[in-house]
Every structure is written in C-alpha cells, then in structure tokens.
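Final report, results section. Input specification for complex C-07:
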Amino acid sequence: MYIKKQRLLTPGPTPLLPKALHAMMGSDIHHRTDDFRNIYRSVLADLKEVMGTANDVLALVASGTGAMEASVSNLFSPGDRVIVCVAGKFGERWAEIVKAFGLDAVVLQEDYGKSVSAQRVADALKANPNARGVFAQASETSTGAQHDVRAMGQAIQKTGAIFVVDAITGLGTMPLDIDGWGLDVVIGGSQKAFMIPPGMAFMSISPKAWTFGETSKLPRYYFNLKKEKKNAANGESSWTPATALLLALAEALKYVKTLGMDKLVQNAQQLAAATRSAVTALGLELFAPQSPCSAVTSVCPPKGMDSGVIVKEYRDRFGSIIANGQGSMKGQIFRIAHLGYFDFADVFALIAELEIILAANGVPVKFGTGVAAVQNAYAEVALAKETVTA
Amino acid sequence: MYIKKQRLLTPGPTPLLPKALHAMMGSDIHHRTDDFRNIYRSVLADLKEVMGTANDVLALVASGTGAMEASVSNLFSPGDRVIVCVAGKFGERWAEIVKAFGLDAVVLQEDYGKSVSAQRVADALKANPNARGVFAQASETSTGAQHDVRAMGQAIQKTGAIFVVDAITGLGTMPLDIDGWGLDVVIGGSQKAFMIPPGMAFMSISPKAWTFGETSKLPRYYFNLKKEKKNAANGESSWTPATALLLALAEALKYVKTLGMDKLVQNAQQLAAATRSAVTALGLELFAPQSPCSAVTSVCPPKGMDSGVIVKEYRDRFGSIIANGQGSMKGQIFRIAHLGYFDFADVFALIAELEIILAANGVPVKFGTGVAAVQNAYAEVALAKETVTA
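Structure output:
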C-alpha cells in the first residue's frame, strides 16, 4: 500500500483548472442581477473570441448531446434529407438524433478507427442535391480519429446544406477556422478542453444556419436557440443558468486567452504526438494511425490482452483514471487523453506507469523506453536545437 | 509555450490532499460551539493516534517554530544548561531560540549534510550532568539528513534531561516510537506530512516534560501549554483556533488513518529511495548520503552549476515547484520532497523533467535512465517477484 493520487485523465471529464474550480465557490450569486449579467455577457464574448468566429455563440445548460439535439430540433424539419458521417460512437449518436427527429438520413459509414473522407461527403452531396445538412464529428473521441472538416466544409459551402460539426473534443485540440471553413454550427462542451466540470454546452451558429431556423418545423421548448440569442443579447439565459459552471468557465477562458487558443491546440497536438511516439516505441499499435486526433490517443493492448486490465491497473496501481474503449470497443483499446489541462508531466508519468503495467503483465519492456520517446518529443519542441544532444 | 500545471512539490508547504482542501469550505462554523468542540476533540484524538503516543497532544495556531519556542518557554528556565544538536539550518534555529530565552547551550555542531551522532549526545550528557534538555531535529530538512533519535533517546532517558524533538518533517517520514524511545516533546506542523496548508503546529508532551513545566520560570502568554491542556480537555483551544485548518486536518487525519501511519512513512521512504537511486543513476551526488532522511532528498548539481538554475528550470519548463538550498546552501543543492501527499507519478515526472533540464544545460544524459531507476524501485516494492523481468 502506498499513496496513489487520484488523477482524472480521461477525454472528458478532463482535469480541472484549479482556479476555475475555486471560482465555483463564488456561486452564491443570483442569475437575474446585473453582476451576473456582466459575467454571462463576458463569458459569451470570450467563448466567441477563443472560438475565433463572427457567428453567434450561445450557451446551454446541457451536456454536449443537448446541443447536438438543439442543432437538429432548431434548424431542420421532418423528412429533411441529411448526410451523416459515422465512424464511431459519436457519429452513431448523430444518426440516432436525426432519426429520432424524423429526418431522412444518408449515412456515410466508415470503419471504427478510420475517417469518412471529404470526397465521400462531396459525392454524397452531388447524389443528394436536396440535402439540407451534413453532420460530422471534428474529432471522434471514441476511436481517436479526426475528420477533415476543412475539406468537408469546402464541399458543403457551395451547396444549400449547412455543416453541423460536433467539435466537443475538437475545440482546443485542432485548428478550426469556423468562418473560413464554413462550419455553420460548431458544438462544444464544458468538460473538455475548457477544463471545467460537465453541465454546459455551447454552440456557434452561422447566418446561413439561422435562415434554416426560420423554416424549421420541429417541436422544441427547452432548446430554443432563437430565444437564447434574444436573451443572450441582454446578458440573460432563457432558463436558470449553471452559475457555478459559468463562474468556472469565466476563469478557464481567462486562462485560455492568456495561453492563446492556438497554443492550447498546439499543446494537445504536442502531447498527442509524444504519446503516439511513446506507445509505438513500446511496440504497441495505434488504433487510428491514419488520421489521429489530438484529443485522445487510442492504443491497442498487446495481443491477447483485454484493455480493461490496463485501465484497471492504471487506477489500482497509480490512481490514474484513463479511458477504456466505449461500447463495442470496450476491451479493445485504451485511451490516453490530451485535451485541455494536460501537460508533459502527465505524459511522463502516464508512460512510465504504462511501462510498469506492461511489465507486470509479462510484456517485455525496457524501462524508460517510452518515457525517452516523450522526452525526445519535448526536446523537439522546447529545447534549442544545439542542446538536443541527449 | 505549452501548459505547465503548477505543482507544489516542496518539503513544506507540501502538496495538499484535495479532500482536506475542500473541507476548508465548511469553516463558516463558530469555534465556541459543541459542533466545533467535537471536531477539535476528534482531531486531537486522531493526532494522538497517528503519532502513536500515550502522551498529551496539543495543537497551536502557529508555524512549527511557534511550537519550538513553546517547548522552550514552557519547560525551561533562564540559565538552564541544555545540549543542542546543530547540523543544519533548523538545528541553528534551536540554538537561536534557547539563546533568545537565556538558556545555557552546549552546541554539538556537525557539518551540513552529516548528523550529530548519538554517541556525542551521550558524551555531552556525561560531561554536563546538570543538563536539563537535549534539542534535535528528527529530520533536518535543510540538508536532507536525519538524526538517530532512537539512540539519542536511549542515552537521554537515563538522565534528568528531557528530549525535545523537532519532528516537523520527521512525523510521517520515519518511524518514531515516541513513548518507547523517550521522545519527551515531539513537534509537528500542518504543512508537512499532514497534507494541509501552513498555520498549525502540534506537539506531544510526556509526563517527564510536564514536571519541567511546574518549575519553568520563563515569561509566556500566548504559548501556554498547561492552559492549552486544560482547555483541550473541554474540546477548546485557549485562543481562537484556525477553524479552516482544523477542518482540513480532520479530513487529512481520516486519510492518514485509512492509509495507516506506517504506510505513510513507508511511502516517503520508498519515494526517497527511488529518488536517490534515480539521481545516482544520472551521475549526480547526494548531499547527505550517510544518513539520508525520507522527507526530502538533497542533490548536488553537476560541478560548476548553480542549483538555482535547476530549480528555476523545473518551474519555468514544467511548473514544478521544488526547493533550492536554504541560507548558505542556496545554489549548492536542490531538494526533492517526499513527505505527505506524494506518489510515484510525481517522482516519474520529476525525474523525467530533471533529465531534460540536465540535457538542456549540456550535461550528457541518456533519456529514461533515471526514470528506469524509479521504475525499478517501484517494481521492487510493488510487483510480484516473478513479474520483475523488465
């Protein structure tokens, strides 16, 4: 028995920014006051700034899935033809939501671990000139792959369809030029790269998407984007806001702005590259080697080993909470996250722990091999060239 | 620029137990109520339990130095002959305090990094049969050496002197059989192995020490141990207690009791051994190799290098706050702590970071060498023998 600090290191909820956590203690504040209205306005303005868009940005008291539903129920009508990219559990969620609301979905299916190509989206748009929308994940957290939403956006922009992007783990882990790439709806969640607990979602909505809202005929009440937009202009939310999370988000956004959104993205990319290099050095296979996202790295366990053993040993031996595969991927992969408040120290420890777990399970490992790969990745980005002699 | 989580990893203040930190939010409580009296009583009882003594245990609103002063001002009289072991900055503090209160000190000086031997204490007692007290550090945090307080206690027990032990970083990092070894006064502090912020000290006082209190002629008011004892029996402190810290300590003691005080000690010992093995593998020299304590490991920087560079690069590159040498040792050593809420993941990261810092400063390092030493230390204690093939 020895001390094991419990470290939350999953791709959501992600590690919390301490200052954001502490800010939640200020939530003895009423939401229908000018004090709070100022905070609300400033959070929405900061979100807009870090998302880098001229589109409207709204916040909802919901998990990311709530915002996904809101994009469907507010912008589409029963029978609308839509194209849905499915290459993982979250792609399947898009398919389920549009089906639940009676849309007519053309599903572009791809194997788990791979990505739906922009070419397939372009082809599908040609084959379905009446398509009103395209749904995709920027980053498919369940498999660790990412979609080329830039190329997809180029194809979609020329058509009458809008592009609805689940960027819940994409925001803060990959460049997303929302306005330049024609990402009409971009959805984020509080418990991802924004470093605060779950309970809030946000979304940007383009002028093109708003025109869809004018003709949408689906029933809605709680998720009413037009109403949210009107209230947001007055520093108000339509319903009671999650005050504690708002206060936390205000602090987290301050931190992200100081760091720079581009640096937050780069941080995730660097840690993801370091992790890929480490697990490869240890002889393990990446589950999504072709187009890996930087939110999370999915790793296949050694042949014949259940990934749950690795996840459990991470927790039992070291208190490190990492993610197993989800749904049908359970036991097939383990996932090391990078989105938001993660740093090199996390990766040094996670890889040193992985080496021990492998050794404890009879996998031949030379201790330090994976860690050295992470150190070399650090040296690559942060040591002057002449000092990288090690 | 990349994310650097600020991690407090110094030998005090030490990393905070999250549950203890959160408990401080409950400090909208008045201290002269039965609710608080129950907490106060229970904290003192738990302290007594984890310290493993039948002696009285009292708490003070003060840093550890306050309790050091209290032991002098409450138990001695001007002109009393005392023996003071000095092998570092905290030993010097004992010498300063007894001087400030007019005691007649025989100082047993030893080089920094070494320890005053029990034999020297025994000899000094023989040479000074009128000695009323012996003062020493269990663990001398400024150099990383420890004293053999067990052997010292054996020599002192037979005499009329009492043994006053600064165990501020000794408690929770080394076995201390307070009653069996004749440690008459044992002093601890909140911000050490007890995992909470600074602001509280505590001390155990033996029956033999209490008899000294009867004849002590030094002026005192705030630090009045007899008065504290009387009030403590009623669940009260003499003056306003640090309620937030008390609530935090209650949680921390719950944690320590669940872990087991012996396991807390073992944890520090294991991390210290792993750290010594790692820095040695990296070709660095230990500052106190002969009798290293487990509270902190003092390491000499490579020849010609100021340890402040290492401390600064730990902070600037990785957000890891470690300690430089104190006083005259500044620039001569850097100190990696192990006391309290530290775990192997901390050490994996700290050593990986050290390797990078050395490389960045032109010291030849094979990345992973030190980390592998830590991993082997982990394997030694936590992997079944047959699996240690790595």
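Confidence is low (pLDDT under 50) at residues 386-390 of chain B. The longest strand of chain B covers residues 56-61. This concludes the modelling results for the funded period.
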